[in-house]
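User: Here's a structure from my thesis project, written as structure tokens. My advisor, Dr. K., wants to see whether a designed sequence matches the one we expressed. Can you design one independently, without my sequence as a hint?
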């Protein structure tokens, strides 16, 4: 067998492309002129265009008249876009303004000339910039160009944000097929199925003459009739007048009909986890965030907080997410962190707001007047309260109004409570459960925002052991769920003001330590994050309050140290991050 030897010139492909492109720019050996909409001529080589685009390959193979022409006009592509596309055929890359309009024009040109890889890159870029303000128009755009993945993303964001879109011109002008596809979406952001009737009515009344005949067909397609509350007068808008809804409202149908998940909460985890910064040769708190969607059992990355800290409070008000306060590391002494659980920290007053349109946390919100950490901040009735009840001096209390963006001082309970209290919002009031500063006895107080005053209350039964240094708690509706480490859980009923031992709540988990507990009131669920006794592995568990059972899920990473904050946030915040 004859011996062979191989020679390869490194980077030859890049060198050849550069040469071909220089030939194009100098009109050397070019054998075709491509003319755009405005008449600008672009010299090129047929072989380069044919190798990059099936459109040009078919054109130059001899089956079309253009194969014999030295000048070819493409009248439906702007000259600026056509120039970019020809440049891409030679170099495999281009630079264009980073605006949705420019990328959309490039997408349209790449689609027409069949530059498939460039088309996919444009589609991916548009996906990252779709939000609640443009999702309807881009759903139409994606449908026009048969981009199924872009359309699915637009439909999903549109469905979740439907209550924000129903009063917009984009929604009023939707086609009947688009409305049917949108309102039948599983993730439609409605609290109850009756809301779909109102949304459908809004669309019909915009052009009632031409749309009235679609009523019955649309209603049967998009409304999940077994879930309609017929005790509420929904037929007044005339949509159900011709439908047989007596059979549809039977219990057997209702039990099997799938409920919408559009307003189902998504878990957001942020802050905490000490990490070592090699560049600074010191430890710092992690600022990364991530979300968990129980609907499809997926974890996603989320924009990081601007300020590195542990124990921030994640709170939502009017659908907006805030990261408030927390603690930052103090570096004192050479033996810092010699004891893994012993470190100094300083509380923070900073407040960050998550902007879903810009997809990042911003600090355009007024800071708290007093630095506070997680357990000193609570959200109730769309107001956020900062209450440091265990300070050495008199307790400080303030409230944040999201509509004005300001903090205002409110009544203080004085020096009644000290460390070890629980702060939660129930029954339109704020409950503080802890120990009295003077006597050390177990005590309870409640703050009434409508009267701006604190009152003592005495539950029927005290459970003093719930107030520990390691405790997780969260509320669902008017119930406060409490989970001290290594003990059975408790819950406190805000109406009866009574503690109960949750025999069926926590004993089956066998968890060694709890890190976070978050409530999803719309679904009556709890998200619990902790470690198990057996192998000390991190675990996520979901408690279904309706079925009174747990479902254990996997935590995606072993990086699960220290304290962090978890909260249930609006699903639309996560969808606006893109894919």
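Assistant: Designed independently from the structure alone:
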């Amino acid at each position: 067998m004859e011996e062979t030897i191989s020679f390869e010139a490194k980077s030859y492909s890049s060198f050849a492309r550069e040469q071909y492109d220089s030939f194009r720019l100098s009109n050397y050996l070019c054998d075709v002129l491509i003319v755009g909409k405005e008449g600008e001529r672009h010299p090129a080589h047929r072989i380069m265009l044919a190798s990059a685009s099936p459109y040009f390959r078919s054109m130059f193979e001899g089956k079309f008249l253009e194969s014999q022409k030295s000048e070819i006009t493409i009248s439906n592509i702007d000259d600026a876009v056509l120039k970019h596309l020809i440049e891409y055929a030679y170099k495999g890359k281009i630079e264009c303004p980073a605006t949705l309009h420019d990328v959309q024009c490039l997408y349209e040109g790449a689609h027409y000339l069949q530059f498939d890889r460039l088309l996919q890159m444009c589609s991916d870029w548009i996906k990252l910039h779709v939000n609640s303000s443009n999702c309807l128009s881009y759903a139409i755009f994606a449908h026009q160009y048969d981009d199924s993945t872009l359309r699915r993303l637009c439909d999903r964001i549109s469905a979740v944000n439907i209550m924000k879109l129903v009063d917009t011109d984009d929604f009023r002008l939707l086609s009947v097929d688009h409305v049917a596809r949108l309102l039948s979406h599983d993730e439609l952001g409605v609290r109850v199925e009756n809301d779909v009737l109102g949304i459908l009515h809004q669309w019909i009344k915009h052009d009632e003459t031409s749309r009235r005949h679609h009523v019955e067909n649309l209603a049967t397609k998009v409304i999940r009739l077994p879930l309609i509350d017929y005790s509420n007068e929904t037929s007044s808008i005339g949509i159900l007048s011709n439908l047989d809804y007596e059979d549809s409202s039977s219990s057997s149908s209702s039990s099997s009909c799938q409920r919408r998940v559009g307003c189902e909460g998504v878990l957001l985890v942020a802050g905490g986890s000490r990490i070592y910064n090699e560049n600074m040769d010191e430890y710092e708190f992690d600022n990364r965030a991530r979300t968990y969607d129980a609907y499809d059992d997926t974890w996603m990355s989320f924009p990081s907080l601007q300020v590195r800290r542990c124990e921030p409070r994640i709170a939502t008000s009017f659908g907006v997410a805030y990261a408030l306060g927390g603690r930052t590391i103090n570096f004192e002494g050479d033996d810092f962190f010699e004891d893994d659980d012993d470190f100094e920290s300083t509380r923070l007053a900073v407040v960050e707001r998550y902007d879903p349109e810009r997809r990042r946390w911003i600090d355009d919100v007024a800071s708290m007047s007093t630095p506070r950490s997680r357990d000193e901040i609570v959200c109730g009735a769309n107001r956020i309260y900062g209450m440091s009840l265990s300070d050495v001096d008199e307790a400080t209390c303030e409230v944040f109004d999201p509509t004005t963006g300001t903090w205002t001082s409110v009544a203080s309970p004085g020096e009644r409570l000290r460390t070890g209290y629980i702060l939660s919002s129930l029954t339109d009031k704020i409950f503080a459960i802890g120990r009295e500063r003077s006597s050390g006895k177990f005590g309870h107080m409640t703050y009434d925002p409508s009267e701006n005053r604190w009152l003592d209350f005495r539950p029927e039964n005290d459970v003093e052991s719930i107030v520990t240094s390691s405790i997780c708690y969260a509320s669902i509706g008017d119930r406060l769920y409490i989970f001290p480490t290594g003990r059975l859980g408790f819950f406190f009923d805000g109406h009866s003001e009574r503690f109960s031992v949750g025999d069926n709540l926590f004993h089956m988990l066998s968890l060694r330590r709890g890190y976070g507990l978050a409530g999803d009131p719309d679904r009556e669920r709890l998200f619990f994050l902790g470690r198990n006794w057996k192998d000390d592995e991190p675990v996520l568990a979901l408690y279904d309050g309706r079925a009174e059972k747990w479902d254990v899920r996997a935590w995606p990473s072993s990086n699960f140290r220290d304290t962090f904050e978890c909260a249930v946030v609006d699903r639309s915040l996560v969808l606006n991050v893109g894919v």
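When you compare it with your expressed construct, this may help: The chain has three domains: 12-113, 135-256, 266-332+342-575.
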